[in-house]
């Protein structure tokens, strides 16, 4: 191929040059184009980075063009309405339609295969409730016995997304929409910015492992900076991020291209550098110290609701945290349960694909443990992980959620097209980029109404589902209201799939067999986990259990 290219390029240069010299000067344009292509080909043959280009000069470049075009061609011309990932076209279209207040009804019936394993539905009632008789704006009160400034929040709020990962215009539009719709906006771990505060929307300030916005010069937690910002009136709750579903056990990443001087100032970091948050917290090193940190933040904030966010990993560790709560009689006001299906702008594929419990499994586990230990009444649960429709809210509520957060749906509401370029700083819609040539296309005054519309219409769809099921409030939904098909001839309720634990049974010592090892080795004085080997078929008395402690 290289020899053919050399022969053809030289011949083309000679022919076009003589045609331009003897026939018409217009041929010089063709000659110039041929010369450029030839030089590109010669460079391809001598460079050592790309094998395809060395073997197939010029033509090998088409491979990279097609790779760039592939996601767009697939999304617009090949995939069906139910095939798209991570969000299919039906869900994306629903978000767009509700954000724009367009017709969101579906013609000619469902496209889902209702007989396929995994299909889920909610049971309706012969005696449904009229929509007009129900509360169109259901709320949940965050704040337990130690909280001095409880927050009456919406059942659907904006999940954690930092300024830095999102553009200033996107952050403004979301916060302004939250203000219009009277719901909360989670700042993400990137800290409080002027764009979060500009429009006065309610904020949940997230504190991550980098302590951005409340850190000292060494990157450690600064009580003074935290107290100063936590008392801002717009900050309604504070959330400690222990882990997120998209990359649990992995710190956040801010690419250097997105780390502008403005963002660096907000986060108290050096501009123009790639910033990787530590995978662990330095402010606490055990379950007991985590509870002490919660107590410290509550005091520093003037008694505002304090909670933490995590994706469930080792069950022993969460049970250890619960033991620490009970021993110190101190409880978070809320726990945000994130699922492994959660989204992020940048994460190693192994973490996105293979680490962390999915939302439904983690949510059911957290609700069961809190109820079983008789401490559920102290703590509200927020569910996060691919929440885009009213059914997703109902499904999460059935497993114990008091409220839900959504991130990608809110991104779609402000214009995201799922171009899958979040980690490149080249987001074509100006949502996940800091490049002004893209961000200027996102008009805050227009998109803020779309955010508010999406929230209003999605909550409305949830309330309609409640009415159809014959229920009056979110707290009435149980695991028996939602079904999942297991096979063509078998369908189970969530109660059968995730058997619930009765209030107080774990506190009384009635621990199910599947949790006995976790409870036995849950120690509030350190983080650790248990490996049980392959003894499941042996007599319980002969089980050999190895306790592995993490270094602190």
Q: Could you walk me through the main structural features you see in this protein, from its secondary elements to its overall organization?
A:
With 552 residues, the chain is α/β, with parallel strands linked by helices. The protein has 2 domains: 2-69, no CATH class; 137-494, Aldolase class I (TIM Barrel), CATH 3.20.20.70. The chain contains 19 helices and 17 strands. It has helices at residues 2-22, 27-46, 51-55, 61-78, 89-100, 168-181, 194-197, 223-230, 261-267, 287-300, 315-328, 349-354, 359-372, 390-398, 408-413, 436-439, 444-468, 494-497, 513-521; strands at 120-122, 139-142, 151-154, 156-158, 184-186, 202-207, 235-241, 253-254, 275-276, 306-311, 334-338, 380-384, 403-406, 482-487, 490-493, 528-531, 546-549. The strands form 5 sheets. An 8-stranded parallel β-sheet has the order 4-13-12-11-10-7-6-5. A 3-stranded antiparallel β-sheet has the order 1-14-15. It has a two-stranded antiparallel sheet with strand order 2-3. α1 packs antiparallel against α2 and α6 (168-181) packs across α17 (444-468). The radius of gyration is 27 Å and the shape is globular. The chain starts with a helix and ends with a strand. Residues 533-552 have low confidence and may be disordered. The chain crosses the membrane at residues 5-23, 29-46. It comes from Niabella ginsenosidivorans. This is Glutamate synthase.
């Amino acid at each position: 191929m290289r020899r053919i290219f050399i022969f053809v390029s030289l011949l083309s240069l000679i022919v076009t040059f003589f045609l331009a010299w003897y026939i018409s000067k217009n041929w010089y344009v063709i000659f110039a184009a041929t010369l450029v292509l030839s030089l590109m080909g010669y460079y391809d043959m001598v460079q050592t980075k790309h094998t395809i280009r060395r073997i197939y000069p010029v033509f090998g470049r088409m491979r990279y063009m097609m790779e760039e075009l592939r996601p767009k061609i697939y999304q617009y011309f090949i995939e069906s309405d139910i095939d798209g990932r991570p969000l299919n076209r039906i869900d994306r279209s629903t978000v767009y339609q509700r954000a724009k207040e367009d017709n969101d009804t579906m013609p000619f019936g469902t496209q889902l295969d209702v007989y396929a394993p995994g299909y889920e539905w909610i049971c309706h009632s012969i005696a449904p409730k009229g929509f007009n008789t129900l509360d169109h704006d259901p709320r949940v009160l965050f704040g337990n016995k130690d909280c001095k400034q409880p927050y009456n929040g919406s059942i659907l709020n904006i999940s954690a997304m930092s300024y830095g990962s999102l553009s200033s215009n996107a952050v403004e539009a979301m916060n302004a929409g939250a203000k219009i719709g009277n719901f909360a906006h989670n700042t993400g771990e990137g800290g409080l910015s002027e764009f979060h505060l500009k429009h006065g929307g309610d904020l949940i300030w997230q504190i991550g492992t980098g302590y951005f916005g409340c850190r000292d010069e060494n990157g450690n937690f600064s009580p003074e900076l935290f107290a100063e910002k936590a008392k801002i009136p717009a900050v309604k709750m504070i959330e400690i991020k222990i882990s997120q579903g998209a990359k649990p056990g992995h710190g956040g990443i801010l690419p250097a291209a997105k780390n502008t001087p403005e963002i660096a100032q907000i986060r108290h970091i050096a501009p123009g550098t790639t910033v990787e948050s530590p995978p662990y917290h330095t402010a606490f090193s055990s379950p007991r110290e985590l509870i002490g940190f919660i107590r410290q933040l509550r005091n520093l904030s003037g008694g505002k609701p304090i909670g933490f966010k995590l994706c469930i990993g080792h069950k022993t560790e969460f049970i250890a945290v619960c033991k620490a709560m009970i021993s110190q009689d101190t409880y978070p006001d809320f726990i945000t349960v994130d699922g492994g299906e959660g989204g992020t702008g940048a994460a190693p594929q192994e973490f996105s694909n293979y680490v962390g419990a999915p939302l439904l499994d983690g949510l059911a586990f957290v609700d069961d443990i809190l109820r079983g230990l008789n401490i559920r009444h102290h703590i509200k649960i927020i569910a996060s992980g691919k929440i885009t429709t009213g059914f997703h809210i109902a499904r999460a509520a059935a497993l114990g959620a008091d409220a839900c957060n959504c991130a990608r749906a809110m991104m779609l509401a402000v214009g995201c097209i799922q171009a899958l370029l979040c980690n490149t700083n080249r987001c074509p819609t100006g949502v996940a980029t800091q490049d002004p040539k893209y961000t200027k296309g996102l008009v805050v005054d227009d998109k803020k109404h779309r955010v508010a519309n999406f929230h209003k219409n999605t909550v409305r769809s949830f309330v309609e589902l409640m009415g159809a099921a014959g229920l009056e409030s979110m707290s009435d939904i149980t695991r028996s209201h939602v079904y999942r098909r297991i096979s063509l001839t078998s369908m189970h309720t969530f109660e059968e799939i995730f058997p619930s634990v009765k209030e107080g049974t774990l506190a009384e010592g009635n621990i199910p067999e599947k949790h006995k090892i976790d409870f036995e080795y849950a120690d509030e004085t350190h983080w650790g986990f248990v490996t049980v080997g392959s003894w499941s078929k042996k007599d319980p008395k002969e089980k050999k259990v190895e306790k592995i402690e993490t270094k602190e």
